[in-house]
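Build the 3D complex.
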Amino acid sequence: MADDLSQISLTFPDGASRAFPAGTTPADVAASISPSLAKKAISATVDGAHWDLAWPIESDAEIAINTMKDLDPSLELIRHDLAHIMARAVQEIWPEVKVTIGPVIENGWYYDFDRAEPFTPEDLGQIEAKMKEIINRRDPVTTEVWDRERAVKYYEANNEPYKVELIEAIPGDQPIRMYWHGHWQDLCRGPHLQHTGQVPADAFKLMKVAGAYWRGDSNRPMLQRIYGVAFQNRQQLKNYLTFLEEAEKRDHRRLGREMELFHFQEEAPGMVFWHPNGWTIYRELEDYMRRKLSKAGYKEIKTPQVVDRKLWEASGHWDKYRENMFITEIDEEHANEKRINALKPMNCPCHVQVFNQGIKSYRDLPLRLAEFGSCHRYEAHGALHGLMRVRGFTQDDAHIFCTEDQIEQECASFISLLSDIYRDSGFAKFDIKLSTRPEVRVGSDEVWDKAEAALEKAILNIRNDFEIDPGEGAFYGPKLDFKLTDAIGREWQCGTFQADFNLPERLDATYIGQDGEKHRPVMLHRAILGSFERFIGILIENYAGRMPMWLAPRQVVVASIVSDADAFVLEAVQKLQHAGLRAEADIRNEKINYKVREHSVGKVPVILAVGQREVQDGTVTVRRLGEKQTQTVPLDQIVEELAREALPPDLAPE
RNA sequence: GCCGGCAUAGCUCAGCUGGUAGAGCGCGUGAUUUGUAAUCACGAUGUCGGGGGUUCGAAUCCCUCUGCCGGCACCA
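Done.
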């Protein structure tokens, strides 16, 4: 063994330390502990870094040996190695295909290939079969650190130009690691399993092929990306596939059709045709927002849809977003020139116009101008997606004109308002991200210091965890983004709060300060829902269409069991409607089973059934969505109960 | 915008290698008066996304446009 000078001390998770020769590998360490651990070991965690069993450790460190029982490292290795195994399978089938990169992602991995022919779904099956073959070969994984030039020459010789480019992008102080699975080779930073047979052959699946730009750059070649998912065992894979099916059932586009909420059609791509049911949800949400904003000290305004390009030139949007704006032209009778207007893509320039009317005093600040602002943006065809990404949408927009000193208070009130609204709409959890000053920006460093600190302090008033995204702020000011988590764990960025030192300048907004001089206000752009369209899409998916009472488009259906009950049904509906409920009668000549099924599928939260007995007793039999039991109660009682239940959260007594 | 796929009745989908369309649900009519997730019978579904071409003949093959789906890029 090596002498004392080249000894290092490794500390284990239980706190014990032992001396090892410098350059010892985790495999050596595992073997020194027990033969069974040596067998089970797959990788190590060394000072927090995921470490290949074959990588030498040169200095004192904390070490933990990982086995397949350690979820994160084992999934990481399985998915990582599958990416290579897939690339190898592809090259074994089609040797001319060029390989590029293949990282691990959530639930699996992808790998991008350059191939003239498109991959077909049948190809995926063939690749999968080949991958299983490779796994069964149990080829050992070996790792070598190569000299940079040698690696470049190697890839040049093998006609793998993408790999050459990748090597050139690796910082000079980092090793070029060459990995071999049997005869197949890839460039990779590792770590890896010890042989391909360690990957569970029945716990992965290739999911889809899609185009993807080389290095994410739309000016560079379009490659073909194959996505795969992988888990530790077959059951976990099955669970995941079931989860996907469940998520598909929540798809708001499907539910939108089934529940008759809205539709889209060719003549207006990306624009929503709201149907009565969907528009009911929209209006309930809008009414709720209007009350919340009004209570929070906002003044609601409405500004024009069609605005002369001059204003967009002044605001800077014409230069930057011209391509994405809907333009209207008009020949005015006595004008020399055609007048060019744009449908507003955002509300802020118009809000500044409202602010600029008359002279504002510091006493007017903060001035909070809110608008349910209907905006249009020409989004790329490929970007459209149901209600989630549309070309015509309505923001719950507002601009707060204030002084620098007021930013913190305004931000704090905003976050508290946003928390209320998210909670009321069913989202308990949300995350906050603070994006700070970018390289290129307007405004002095002092103002940025102040604004960033104000936003940070405002968050800390409410909670102590938030993420910082350095350099990702807008050029005009720092911003906060708010991401909520839905019922199946997906995250959606909805709210935003942005300080703006630029637009007031460009559009010359001023107020008279205490000193009698003109000053520039700061403008705070903020939204909570983002857009009504998208937020409703998120609500539909979050609730899987089973909206809470106050948002449900059809709240109660009163269904007759025999036609002798029809009169009582109509009476009940009238009482429910008088109590403010969205109630309807179902006195069709159908069995109660049929009616219950239809309204359950239609996601009506409450069905009241009326037969002979109920008519006699003045009662109804209540069945709630998703419950099998029923309960017979006096009509007047349930009317009162449901009316209370249907109150929007801000109007409901605590 | 880019890559790939798809487009048949209101919805979900079938229609093999070219011979002018079919099922279930829904809809309409009638019967049934029904007790908590589909009662029975009968009936009608349509410019096979639009345009052009090949062919004696096109839902089917080719071209093109549009839209949708999955990604990528974009998202003030």
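Residues 71-93 of chain A form the longest helix (23 residues).
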